[in-house]
Amino acid sequence: MLDPKNGLAPGDPVRMAARIIESVDIEPAPLRMALGSQALESTLSTLRKRIAGFEAQRNSPLRRISRPARKERRKSGGVTRRGESVATPDNAERSE
User: Fold this and answer.
1) Is residue 2 part of a domain?
2) Domain that holds residue 27
3) How many folded domains does the chain comprise?
4) Any domain includes 26
5) Within its chain, how far is the Cα of 26 from the centroid?
6) Report field, pTM of the whole predicted structure over 0.70
């Protein structure tokens, strides 16, 4: 969040730089860092909204999309996800 008056991020840039440098020695290294309480609260709020959206999908009919059963894949001529044909009992005669 930038301060609308001066266009700068709130907080102490020297302390932020120090935290970034310190993070190099942390094992495992953090993938992301929210520096400052305002950044952390904003990030957590956004993530909570996203989680709520995913939670709302739990009972959605769209969630029930799954891969076809093995028998159905055989009926399709034994085609893999990459579009490569594979020999199955159903299509073995066709490939000869």
Assistant:
1) no
2) 13-89
3) 1
4) yes
5) 23
6) no
